[in-house]
Amino acid sequence: MRKLVIIVAACAGVLFAARALWATTWAEVEIQCPICKTQVKVMEPMSFGSYIYQWPSRMQLLFWPTTDTSSLHYCFKCHYSAFMGDFETFPTEKAGLLRTKLGKLKAPKAEPGVHKTAGVPLGFWFDAAELRYRLLDKNDSFWSLFYRVKGYHLSTTGDEEGAKKARQKALGIVEQLLVLTKSSLKKKELLVTRAAMLYLTGKSDDVFKVLKEATAIQLQAEDGLKEDKVKNAQEYMDAVIKQLEGHVEKGEKLPQ
Ligand SMILES: [Zn+2]
Q1: How far, in Å, CA of 122 to CA of 125, rounded?
Q2: What pTM value is reported for the model?
Q3: Measured in angstroms, how far is the CA atom of residue 213 from the centroid of ligand 1?
Q4: Which residues surround ligand 1, an ion (CB under 5 A)?
Q5: For the chain, which residues score pLDDT lower than 50?
Q6: Quick count: other Cβ atoms within 10 Å of Cβ 175?
Q7: What is the distance in A from the centroid of ligand 1 to the CA of 113?
Q8: Are strands 25-32 and 72-74 parallel, antiparallel or unpaired?
Q9: Distance of CA 99 from the midpoint of ligand 1 (Å)
């Protein structure tokens, strides 16, 4: 019996250590909305580790903190919304135009606070954020990420229809980017993203072909990928492809 207790205690210790090792920590801070000057309470990341790159969202080429709803900040007074790091700054000369656009949005009633959505559908936060970013001439790589993040969060909060629409938009952008890119790393990443978006929007027929194409790409040193990083990047991307392929083979829902 004593031996059993020791084994159980040892297992619990390992579990606790594993949880601590994989923890990310957040802290509440107050930041100012650049549109209506309201002080907004938000959460900001305090600590994390490289383990975030092993989490299953990597199959959609999405990484913490974008996979946490706290990464999107929202002003309950004027609806201004932006990703963390972007929230506090917005060009003064465009603030009036954005204020008008945000004023036309109709949001469900919500109480101020840090609670993630507080009665406002998360999709509404993204709609408001989209108005902000549309005024800033963001490129296709940004929009591919924006819609993938939107799809991810709508899916995890139960809006599968909204998630599918967002992912279809991401897919269209990724397919355009694939035609243009010359970089071996970008091409491999785009093919993985394309495969994931095809799978998540129910167009499974081409997924294996796309993953095979992604596997065949041998990375090379180029802009954004130094010689000494090529091997690690190749191994990492091939592991992501294998992981995605495993779920697709079994017809499983992708873990998020
Ligand atoms: Zn505001």
Answers
A1: 5
A2: 0.87
A3: 46
A4: 33, 35-36, 38, 75, 77-78, 80
A5: 1-20, 114-115
A6: 15
A7: 13
A8: unpaired
A9: 9
